[in-house]
Specification:
InterPro entries: aa-tRNA-synth_II/BPL/LPL, Biotin_CoA_COase_ligase, BPL_C, BPL_LPL_catalytic, Transcriptional_repressor_C. GO terms for molecular function: ATP binding; biotin--[biotin carboxyl-carrier protein] ligase activity. It is a single chain. By secondary structure, the chain is an alpha+beta fold. It has 2 domains: about 200 residues, BirA Bifunctional Protein, domain 2, CATH 3.30.930.10; about 45 residues, SH3 type barrels (Roll). It has 6 helices and 12 strands. α2 links the parallel β1 and β2. It is globular. The N terminus is likely disordered.
Length: about 270
């Protein structure tokens, strides 16, 4: 007689706290079954004085969003979506923050045994060239010290209802062939990495993470095309990023600094 497959443990505050260990005192984690957008919920809480380290996770988002107004598809079985509120020291420069967050996510995933992790400017984590995770950072307006909400979505499995065009470009942890970590374990690992990375960013800025980002840059030295809503496409060679996180693109007229914004990066 064959035994039944083990039931996957759902995301829970207690399990996340256990995974965080001594770091659990730095975070206040809330898990809900469903919400419109974890970023939207946490932005509202931030404006009402929620402390740094507040985490809002949803098993399902009905209006999750990414950069450039895109939707993020999520449900409890296929993805982990959460947002983290972080208050930086006064006068912290935010330039390059999304890249530093990407490095933290990459390192956490590598520590779980994944190989083939790379970073795509400005805010995507790739697995073997396909998008595994994304980051959406929003500044809380009118709040000092500098306060941000960091939204993160990571694919655990390929969603069955994912649109055809995304099926071709998306990756999932299950693609690695490794056992899937429990969602609570995954969240605890990511928060542990983010705590260290954000503390360091507040003290040293993106320059402290730049070399680690370049080591994982998916398109370093390759011909690329930059697409923008506000200008003509640019083509050139990717020469990395500077200490502010700006992309360095070598074009026919010289090296141009492309600041983090509404820009997409595609292989030429």
């Amino acid at each position: 007689m064959s035994s039944a497959a083990p039931t996957e443990q759902p995301l829970s505050v207690a399990a996340v706290a256990a995974g965080l260990g001594e770091l659990s005192c730095r975070f206040d984690v809330e898990v809900v079954a469903e919400c419109d957008s974890t970023n939207a919920r946490l932005l509202a809480l931030a404006e009402n004085g929620a402390p740094s380290g507040r985490v809002f996770a949803a098993l399902r988002q009905t209006a999750g969003r990414g950069r450039r107004g895109r939707s993020w598809f999520s449900n409890a079985e296929d993805s982990l979506t959460f947002s983290l509120l972080w208050r930086f020291p006064r006068d912290t420069t935010m330039a390059g923050l999304s890249l530093a967050v990407g490095v933290a996510l990459a390192r956490a995933l590598e520590e779980l045994g994944l190989s083939g992790i790379a970073l795509k400017w400005p805010n995507d984590v790739l697995l073997h060239g396909r998008k595994l995770a994304g980051v959406l950072i929003e500044l809380v307006p009118g709040v000092l010290p500098e306060t941000v909400v960091i939204g993160i979505g990571i694919n655990r499995r390929r969603a069955r209802d994912l649109p055809d065009d995304l099926q071709l470009t998306a990756a999932a942890l299950a693609d690695s062939g490794l056992p899937l970590p429990a969602t609570s374990v995954l969240l605890a690992r990511l928060l542990t990495a983010l705590s260290a990375a954000l503390t360091r960013f507040g003290a040293e800025g993106f320059a402290s993470a730049r070399e680690q980002w370049l080591e994982r840059h998916a398109f370093q030295g390759r011909a690329v095309r930059l697409l923008s809503d506000f200008s003509e496409p640019l083509e050139g060679l990717c020469r990395g990023v500077d200490n502010d996180g700006a992309l360095l693109l070598e074009t026919a007229t010289g090296v141009q600094r492309i600041i983090t914004g509404e820009v997409s990066l595609r292989l030429a």
